[in-house]
Design brief:
Helix content is 75%, strand content 0%. The protein is an all-alpha fold. It has one domain.
Length: 51
């Protein structure tokens, strides 16, 4: 029979998962809203120059 309490004591999380989690939370990721805001800023900037 499996001793679940003993197995839980031995458990160690995978380092790849911990590293990926850190990379995701530590970096600001560009999402679609950021892209759209940048496009809008660029469009407004070019309109001002042509007027």
């Amino acid at each position: 029979m499996i001793d679940y309490e003993e197995e839980l004591k031995k458990f160690e999380p995978c380092l790849d998962v911990a590293e990926a989690e850190g990379a995701i939370y530590d970096h600001e990721l560009t999402d679609i809203l950021d892209v759209l805001q940048e496009m809008l800023r660029e469009a407004k900037g070019t309109n001002r120059l042509t007027r």
